[in-house]
Design goal:
The structure holds 2 protein chains of 2 kinds.
Chain A lengths: L1 H31 L6 H20 L5 H26 L8 H23 L13 E4 L2 E4 H23 L1 H11 L1 H6 L4 H23 L9 H16 L4 H21 L2 H18 L9
Helix pairs in contact in A: 1-5, 1-6, 1-8, 1-9, 1-10, 2-3, 2-4, 2-8, 2-9, 3-8, 5-6, 5-8, 6-8, 9-10, 9-11, 10-11
Chain B lengths: L2 H18 L6 H23 L8 H18 L4 H23 L5 H20 L9 E2 L11 H21 L1 H11 L1 H6 L4 H27 L1 E2 L6 H14 L6 H18 L4 H15 L3 H9 L4 H5 L2
Antiparallel strand pairs in B: 1-2
Helix pairs in contact in B: 1-6, 2-6, 2-9, 2-10, 2-11, 3-4, 3-5, 3-9, 4-9, 6-7, 6-9, 7-9, 10-11, 10-12, 10-13, 11-12
Amino acid sequence: MQTALQLVMTGLQIGSVYMLFSLGLTLIFGVMKIVNFAHGQFFTLSAMLVAVLVPWLTTRGVSLPVAFGLGALAGIAVSIVVGLLLYQFGFRYFQRDLVGSFILSIGFALLFEGVFLHYFGGAVRAVPPIIDGDVSFFGVNLTAQRLALGLVALAFTLALYWVLSATRLGKAMRAVSIDHEAAMLQGIPYKKIVFNSFAIATFLGAVAGAIMAPISVITPTVGADYLVKGFIAVVIGGLGSVPGAIVGSLFIGFLESVGGYFFDPSSANMAIFVLAMLILLLRPKGVMGNG
Amino acid sequence: MDKRVLSQSGLAVVVAGIATLAVAPGYSANLVMWMAIAVLMAASLRFVLLIGELNFATAAFVGLGAYGAGVSTTILQWPFAVALLLSGVVAAAIGFVFGFVTLKTKGPYFLLIGFAFTEMVRLVYTKVQWLGGNSGMVGIFPPQYLEASYITFVVVLVGVLLIALYAIEQSHLGKCFVAIRDNDQVVQSVGVNVHLTKVACLCIGAFAAGIAGGLSAFVNNVISPGDFGFLLSTFALAYLKVGGEDSPLGPVAGAILLVLLGSVALGLGAGEHVFYGLAIILSVLLLPQGVVGLLSRLRPGRRSQAHVA
């Protein structure tokens, strides 16, 4: 029982990061109908900047939590600027062109990976833990840091849900994702909505990178691992569906935690791929997809 | 396919084959063989694009072909011709199963599941001990009687396969593929089994990719799981995109250009990732029809010629 509870908690924690990551993917797909392979690079960029800035700031006498906060802010800000540049000079011309936008995003992903490898080197970096100590309840042990991470991811997910369901921008985004021409006929400023959606998606990816930095090792290719899982989560849930992305991410989180406990991580990965294919066989548009 | 195209392209293959006799063995010979294999990979990707699907599992099929050739040569000790044929057959057989399951989905779903499939197959190689695990397989050599002329063999075989792919594209079946891309419901309505036709297209593409993998195993003599990640599909995509996917000559032009420029760029110390990334971005933004499309636009009088041959 205790093991089961522990595995559930670990699964939730892993799933929460995938959730933040895949929400960005599904948002971009829903509004622009493009598959953005460069999304992982925003994650990497922000995690890398945190990993570089935190040691740099702490050696100059800034306390660790402040250094992390500054690093995360810088990482997220730079990622958003880069993301909007990619949008302005690339993706803007490839909306609703699945193959074209995918190829373009592959090009960006390769370019950024090369640039990251060149500037940050292949070395593995680690950020010291920001919050120390463990939290235990019902006999389940979690490091306080991982718990905080899960809570932050949950907070952002709830915030996105609120934006999508209650604000004018969110309603416009949903309208555009259902039928962009009908939305334009209603007077919804399509270009502005797409721009904002891309910015929000980039922001979510960058936040995921920044909060993951203290608990995982950071390499220039860290985003690629998350990209694969994030896309599988979105495909399982249904492209463009926000609840689908959440369900898919939690599913992958649980598989990783259970599979990693009883077998080993690469068996867990294979199980994820096989199950994803089985789910698509039964539901070719994902569990919650309809378009 | 009409006789003129057949004789012209056949002549081109013969000329290319004779030209390889002049290539000095060593690095330049390997470079030519890598080009030929890259051409075949890009042609396989383009072939599946006929039904409108971007087959990101191409790298997996190349890997299956390479491992098929590796196992039959080093473990089973089968002759070269059988090993090479097997590399295509293994890829096509697994392509059939993969396509049968996944071609029920389309567009982004098919693309992403192909991507996941590539990663899964790569993980399987690392887990299977008799396939060499993470370190892969070594000692895959072409037979002695082909040692000196292997480069000619590779170039001619790739040429023949390209002509065969083009012949299929021009056949009744090929017309069905394109019709499915344009509107699968119309094709369904005239009584064509759309699902099986799509699976057939994927199988043929997988066969070509498998042969490319088998040929590359004999060129490199060593294979390892890391060679067949999704990055390989990305490179194939870069060849296709730079060359232009509208013409069957696109993969040829793109692969030769990029492999050549890539080897120069690597010699100058630039990273492979940056080079291929920039090549893709620039060609997508500036040359939507690729190099071949650009050439045929510059010479409007000879447009028809660029589309055949």
